[in-house]
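Limitations

Structures in this collection are predictions, not experimental determinations, and the ligand pose is part of the prediction. Treat each record accordingly. The example that follows, with beta-D-fucofuranose as the small molecule, is included so readers can see exactly what is and is not provided: the inputs are given verbatim, and the output is the predicted complex.
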Amino acid sequence: MKFKKIAALAATAVLTIGIFAGCGGASQQTSSSNSSSKKKVIGFAQVGAESGWRTAETTSIKEIPKLDPNFELKFSDGQQKQENQIKAIRSFIAEKVDIIALDPVVETGWDTVLREAKNAKIPVVIVDRNVKVADNSLVTAFLGSDMEEEGKRAAKIVIDKFGKDAKLNIAELQGTVGSTAMIGRQKGFNETIKDCPNYKIIKSQTGDFTRAKGKEVMEAFLKSDGNKINVLWSHNDDMAVGAIQAIEEYGKKPGKDIFIVSVDGIKDMFKLMADGKSNGIVECNPLLGPQLLETSKQVLSGKLKDKIVHTKEGVFTQDQAKKELPNRKY
Ligand code: GYE
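Predicted complex:
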C-alpha cells in the first residue's frame, strides 16, 4: 500500500479566449434593452440533471443572484439533449439576455446557434465542458476543469497501487460520448497507462454518466468477464455507484476484488470509499457559480483578458475518505 497522499493538488480550470470581434474594450455593448440600473440577465443552458456533480453545479450557478443581486438567472435544463440546449439558447437570444452561459452536452454542433448569439451581440461564456467551433470568436470565455488532467490522475492512482509492470484487466465506464468530460478523461488515462505494457482495457462502454446506466453496463461486463476484471475506471462517481451495486449483486467485493477509481468527489462516493468499497477519487469541482459571476462581470464591463483560473481540486485515496467526508460540500 503505497498510496501517495496528494490532497489539494493544484488543478487547472482554464479561463480563456478573447473578446468578441468588434466588441472589445469599454465600448462593449450587448443587445439587451436593460438600462444600467436594471439587473443583468444570465441565461444558463445546463446539460441536464444526470449526476450528483451536475446537481451541485446547478445549485451553485442558481446562487448567482444571491451572491450579487444585480444579476438575474434564467435557467434551462437540456435533459442531456443538444437540441434542447440549442432551443434554450434561441429563447435566450429572443429574450435579449445580457450573457449566455452554456454547459454543452457534447463538443460539436454549436457553430450555427453560437453565430446567432454573436449576431445578436450577446457574449457566450462556456462553462465546464467545452465546445469545438471553427470560429473561436463565437466564444467569449471558457471556464472549467482540465478533463485530460483528471484522466491522468485517475491512471496514476492505479499505477501507484499496482506498479507499472502489473498485469491488469481494466473495465472502463465512459461518460456521455462526445462530451469533453468523456473525451478528455479517456485520453488522459489512456496516455498515462501507455507506459504499462500489461495494463489492458478489456471492456469499455458508455454509461452516460448516470447511476442506472453505470449499473446496467457493469452487469453486462461482469456477465461476460466477471472473473477477469481487476480494475474499474469510471469517468464519474455516479456510474461507479451503480457499478458497485452490480458488483455486490454479482457476489464480488467492490474495492477489494475489483479496484475502483472514479472522478468527481460527490459525498455518496466518499461514503462508499470510507466503507472500503472504492479506492480512489479524482476531484472535479462543480461549484462554478462564483467563477461564472466573476467572468460575467468582467465581460460586461469590457475588461475580460485572456486568463487562467486555478480551481483547487484534489486526489483522494481510501485511507483519506473518512477524514475528508465531513468537508465535502457536494
Ligand atoms: O464529471 C459528471 C457529469 O461535465 C465535469 O458531467 C462534468 C461531468 C461530471 O455528469 O458527473
